[in-house]
Amino acid sequence: VGQAAIMTQVMAICAGEKLVESVAIYEWRDDVGGAETTSNWGLVKGTDYTVPYAAKPFFVAMAEFNKLLTDAEPLGFIENGDTKAYRFKSAKDGKNITDLWPDGSSEAVGLDLGTNEVEILDMYGNSRGKIHSENGVYSFLATFEPQYIIGNSEKMEFAEAIISTNDGRCNAPAGDIAVINFTDKLSRNLR
Fold first, then answer.
1. Is 65 exposed, middle or buried, given 0-12, 13-18 or 19+ CB atoms closer than 10 A?
2. Which terminus in the chain has less CB density within 10 A, N or C?
3. HSE-CB of 43 using CA atoms within 13 angstroms
4. How many C-beta atoms lie closer than 10 Å to residue 40's C-beta?
5. Do 100 and 78 form a contact (C-beta atoms < 8 A)?
6. In sequence order, what DSSP letters do the residues of the chain get, joined into one string?
7. How many CB atoms lie within 10 A of CB 103?
8. DSSP state of 39
């Protein structure tokens, strides 16, 4: 997952800031039995894996990045501390796509997108659903794994996050109980 997140972030920065004209992936597949750091930089698993040439998360994330942002027009980017947001105009349907992530761990982020509805996709292209806002301001839980925010946004500005959570991830074994606290901007618990 780390390789997928880092590479989609790098690709968004390169495309959003027009830093390079093209990118070449170092290796198509992981090296067989390789102990070197670079042995695992491939898009797919090696021939010694249980399923030879199985797609790695990196492959799936890059496929989604290319599907959404090939030939997209960069519309700018904003940074707030460690959090980055890059905005693009899709060449396919003209919708705006915001790519959002923080460099560190998870963080509650508010964005004013100037539109009443957006769809959220994870970095693999899985829809997390559509959300609505009366004033165009949204709260997101931004994690190291970039997420795509798609809609007819008129702008992209940081705003105050209205809802936040104590953690972006919760891992627990089957049958265990995990608690995630949601709070509003007045620090009221929203259970």
1. buried
2. C
3. 11
4. 16
5. no
6. -HHHHHHHHHHHHHHHTT--S----SEEEPPTT--SGGGG-EEE--TTSSSTTPBPHHHHHHHHHHHHHTTPEEEEEEEETTEEEEEEE-TTT--EEEEEEESSS-EEEEEE-SSSEEEEEETTS-EEEEEE-SSSEEEEEE-SS-EEEEE--S--EEE--SEEES-S-----TT------EEETT--B--
7. 12
8. G
- Can you give the C-alpha Rg of the chain in angstroms? 18
Q: Which two tokens stand for residue 39?
A: 């042995």
Q: Is the pLDDT of residue 72 over 70?
A: yes
> Long-range contacts for 31-40 (Cβ within 8 Å, ≥24 apart)?
40/3
| Dist. CA 44–CA 90, nearest whole Å | 27
Tokens of 53: 């040439």
* Tokens describing residue 145: 């794994």
Asked whether residue 27 carries a pLDDT value surpassing 90, the answer given is no
Instruction: Scan for tokens 């990045």, then name that residue.
Output: 65
